Structures are given as structure tokens and as C-alpha cells.
Model the fold of this input.
Amino acid sequence: MKKLPYAAAFFAVVLWASAFPAVRYTLGYFTPVALMLYRFIIASLFLLSYCFIKKIPPPKVKDLPLFILSGFTGLFLYMWAFNAGTVTVPAGISSFIISSAPMITLVLTVWILKEKASAFIWSGALIGFAGIGIIAFSRDAYFQLNFGIFLLILAAIFTSFYNIFQKQILVDYTPMQATTYSMALGTVPMFIFMPNLIRELPQAPPSAHLIIVYLAIFPAALAFLMWVYALSKAEKVIYVTSFSYLSPFLATVIAFFWLGETIPQAALVGGVVVVCGMAISSYKN
Done:
């Protein structure tokens, strides 16, 4: 049972890694804002239907601001910055930047949640980050600064704050409540992009719609639920967020099987470095 939260975090990261090639494909038919709205309408309805059937209560009025803040930063702002950034940034570099979130989260947990971080945690986080760099630049050696890079850095910051807000929500609510109502409230402001979605829906092929349904159910609804469950059970937030370091390596492996892309030897080396960094971060001295 002690290992279950970390298994949940791992499978959440696997699903999120699969989103990188899927999002790149669907952006050929939808603008980032339309894709974001389409995906999270489906994901929110999926989770809200479950809560309705199981009669899971909504948050108390006094806690609504925290849920709104969580959804707005972790869903609306994060997904807008992530989708817009990936338009001009290759998958390897984008996954590298997004996976800087554990480092940002580590700083925030020490600053806001007052969690203690040992030298093992700091050194492991830095080693894991170095492993991500090896993986990313083995896939996309040419690093060109553009506005997409800036957006992806913002996305990493937004998702780091989401982890902090969720940890605070989980003091009084279940993972299902924390995930569902944060996601639903984060989807509401996305409706400003409804005209884009209505205009683009008829133009997309069936394959794009099917992939968006996949993105909604698996890398969105289920992955977020598993992630929040892991946050609720883990001793420290960093023990969960360090799994994000695996995302670029997993994205490379998934792209190999899905898109037929090659796996550079440097990416395999980077994967080993990432795992070593995670092991050091989780070492309890």
C-alpha cells in the first residue's frame, strides 16, 4: 500500500508522456485554444458524471476560491501556455522545459508548505534535471529561443503552483473531489474559446476527434486523478513530482512505438541518469 501512490504517479506520467505526440498531431487540425476547450469539456463531464452517480459532494462555499485558483492555474493557464508553446517548440525541448516543474515545485514546497528538503533531495533533483537535458537535446539538438519557450516556462510554473494548491485542498477533500471540481472550474473560463471550437469542429477528420477523446479521458481525467491521489498519500510532494522527470524519456519511447521515431543512445543514457536522480531524491537519511 505504501508503494501504491508512487505507482499511481508513474502511470499518470506515462499517460502525460503520451499526450506530447497526441497534442502535436491534433494541433494540425485545431488551434491550441479550441483543442484545450474540446479536451477538458469531455474530461470534466466524464468526472462530473461519476461524482453525480456516486453522490460525491461539491466543495464548501468557503473553499471555492482555492478550487477556482487551482483550476485556473493548473488547467486554464497551464493548458493554454502548454498548447500554444508546443506549436513552435519541438517535442523534445518542450518536454524538457515542462519537466522542470519538479525543481520549481521543490522550491515552492520549501517556501510555502515549509517542507524540509535534505541535500539528497536537492542533489537528486538536479541530477534528474540534468538527465532530462540529455534526453531532450539528443532529440532536438538545435535550441532556438522563441516565444514558445517563454510560454512553456510559464506552463511549468503554473503546474508547480497547481501541485501546491492541490496539496492544500487535499487536507479536507478526497482526491476525486480535488481533481473533479478543480478541473470543472478550470474549464469554465475556457468557454471564451467556444467560437474557435465551433468553427474548427467540422474541419477535423475522425482520427483527430478520437485522439482528443483519448486525451480527455486518459492523459486528462484519469492521469490528473492518479496524480492527485499520489499527492494525497505521499510523505513529501517532491517524492511524487520527481516522477515528472521520466516524462521526456517515456515520450521518446512512446514516439518510437507510435510514430516510428528512433531512440537515440543518449536518450537511454539520460533515462538512466533520471532514475538515479529520482533514487537519490527519495533516499531517506
Remarks:
- The mean pLDDT is 82.
